[in-house]
Input
Amino acid sequence: MRYAQGGGLSDERRQFREGIRMTAAERFASGEPSSAIAKELRVSERFSVATDR
Output
C-alpha cells in the first residue's frame, strides 16, 4: 500500500528530503559521478540515482 502523504513523514522531513533530491539531480545533471554525490549528501547511491528518474 502506498501512502498519499509521503509514508507518514512530517511536512518538515518531506521538505528536507525533497531538497536533497533536487541537489542530487542538479549535480547529476552537471556530470558528477553518483558515488561522489551520494557520499557528500550522505545518502545511498541508489537514492541519488533514483532522483534523476
Observations:
- The helical segments are 11-29, 34-41, 45-50.
